[in-house]
From TrEMBL:
PANTHER family: HEMOGLOBIN FAMILY MEMBER, HEMOGLOBIN SUBUNIT EPSILON. The keyword Iron applies. Transmembrane segments: none annotated. Residues 2-146 form the Globin domain. This is Globin domain-containing protein. GO terms for biological process: hydrogen peroxide catabolic process. One of its GO terms (cellular component) is hemoglobin complex. One of its GO terms (molecular function) is heme binding. Belongs to the globin family. InterPro entries: Globin (IPR000971), Globin-like_sf (IPR009050), Globin/Proto (IPR012292), Hemoglobin_b (IPR002337), Hemoglobin_oxygen_transport (IPR050056). Pfam families: Globin.
């Protein structure tokens, strides 16, 4: 993937405004609510039976932060996202058996959270750079399935 200086700047400008704990919690909560079948992967997290339970679940809170922190690390390795996420991809494929379609869903939910949070700063140009990063992220996480 080739990144222009403008794209890198846009992606970093978005990430500077992200709070991995708060926004991670919101992203994972939304994923589990909007796509309820994703709950099946988190059977060890306890009660996910309704929105209030999901939103108040400490493990969801902790895991949302973990996921967004990994995305932040991937941004720091933007010139080799595929290599950086190779082990994490294999883990999702071979140990966790996560359907890779769900990576795209999570990435889309994160765009909604970011758009709501950033407001007018999430310009079409910034969003385009972010969507390109999302595509690289989803491809990298899906790579270990093949
Ligand atoms: C675990 C990142 C998407 C299900 C993890 C871990 C990270 C991570 C960093 C911890 C790995 C470890 O402890 O070694 C990501 C990223 C994603 C993503 C960056 C997408 C952008 C998903 C999706 C699902 C999922 C969409 C399911 C719908 C899981 C599960 C675990 C896990 C079940 C193990 C949780 C546990 O028992 O602690 N993920 N993940 N992941 N992920 Fe993902």
């Amino acid at each position: 993937v080739h990144w222009t200086a403008e794209e890198k700047a846009a992606i970093n400008s978005v990430w500077q405004k992200v709070n991995v704990e708060k926004d991670g919690h919101e992203t994972l909560t939304r994923l589990l609510v909007v796509y309820p079948w994703t709950q099946r992967y988190f059977s060890s997290f306890g009660n996910l039976s309704n929105i209030t339970a999901i939103n108040g679940n400490a493990k969801v809170h902790g895991h949302g932060k973990k996921v967004l922190s990994a995305i932040g690390e991937a941004i720091h390795h933007i010139d080799d996202v595929k290599g950086f996420l190779a082990d994490l991809s294999k883990k999702h494929a071979r140990e966790l058996h996560v359907d890779p379609e769900n990576f795209k869903r999570l990435a889309d939910v994160l765009v909604i959270v970011l758009a709501a949070k950033l407001g007018t700063a999430f310009t079409p140009q910034v969003q385009a750079a972010w969507e390109k990063f999302n595509a690289a992220l989803v491809a990298a996480l899906s790579h270990g399935y093949f």
